[in-house]
Amino acid sequence: MSDLATSARLIPADQWHVSDVTLPAQGFGAVIVGLGRAGLGLHVPVLEKIRSEGAGASSFGAVVGLVDTAETGIKRAQHRLEYDYGYDPRGVSCATSLAGLTGVDRDHAIVHICTPADDHAPAVRAATEAGFRRIIVEKPCASNTADVDEMQRIADRTGASIAVINPYLYSRSVASCKNKIQELGQQPHYLEFEMSKPRTTPTLLGRSRPESVLDVELPHQIATALHLTEASRYRVLRADVRHMHYREVDTEPCQVVRNMGVGIIVLELDQCIAVLVSYLDALTRTRELKLRFRNTDHIEAFLPVTGDDHTSVVMEYSGHGTDGSMEQRRVAKLPDDMLARCLSDIYSRFATDTPQLSDLAFNRRVVDVMDKAKAFARIRR
């Protein structure tokens, strides 16, 4: 068993920014490293949304740098910045490495590392060697705990501040579950978090090559379980992965992608048993979180399932009706733009030198669970 003193604390559900923040007159510029789905498809649009809807209160200024090993990725990103967001391409520095990036004010820039997990530690090193001291890393934080430890050593040596993307720590429905735990004064004795989606096409085409299903949605689920329970100890009780099977019609040969179909992790978190399930070959999208308490209370949250969906539904149950079924006490429909809240808060904390909510210490525990689960499932020997 490993000790867990969770450092993450959730900001209030109705706030995007840290309270009592005095923002600098000059917003931070963003340097996007890795121009694939995460960098160009998520970070850039969400940053621009924060700026357009923040009424001048955002700590984000503009995208000032684009870094990708492929020239085609840089050109595609330049085109999108110009035609979707009105940028003058001459004002955005581009390079195939952070070392080659010129004309960017390192003191007023934040590096977004949106490359594969096994590249995160080298990318953090490259960012600090290039003079940057504020860094955001995509999930999972790293491919193993040794890399997280190396990132921490780099941060300690250079004074860099590192935040890790963890949108579910900013979900209003997760905050509602957290509030219920605090109201009852006890951990749930059972937690279940299922994430399902049809990821068949990108998996078969090899657009991204995670080690297994455990690297895709389960880092979010692990982080949420650790955050909600604040358990002092955690232990992997079970971990299993299944292959992805696919064919268009019965007469075609079946395509098989090893370890990319279904992932299951069962954790012991102090007195709570957490069951985390991810289906990447599902026909529909599901993100459902359930908490059950010993006093018959339980809560269910249905979280946003796509990037265009920013609404959660939370249902609370307590006691039993005359027919023995649980009685529904409350249903709440909540606006829940998690990634926007996440990035907005990270920028605000950089602006005020406030400790990050999703820091390396918290995310080392997430990666440690992943390491143990992969060993349990015999993905790693």
Walk me through the structure.
By secondary structure, the protein is of the alpha/beta class. The chain has two domains: about 10-165 and about 340-355, Rossmann fold, CATH 3.40.50.720; about 170-335, Dihydrodipicolinate Reductase, domain 2 (2-Layer Sandwich), CATH 3.30.360. It contains nine helices and 15 strands. The protein has helices at about 40-55, 70-85, 120-130, 145-160, 170-185, 200-205, 220-230, 340-350, 360-375; strands at about 1-5, 30-35, 60-65, 95, 110-115, 135, 160-165, 190-200, 235-245, 255-270, 270-280, 280-290, 300, 310-320, 325-335. The strands form two sheets. It has a nine-stranded mixed β-sheet with strand order 1-9-10-11-8-12-13-14-15. A six-stranded parallel β-sheet has the order 4-3-2-5-6-7, sandwiched between helices. Helix 3 (about 120-130) runs parallel beside helix 4 and helix 7 (about 220-230) crosses helix 9 (about 360-375). Mean pLDDT is about 90; it is low at about 1-25.
Summarize the structure.
The chain is α/β, with parallel strands linked by helices and 381 residues long. Helix content is 30%, strand content 30%.
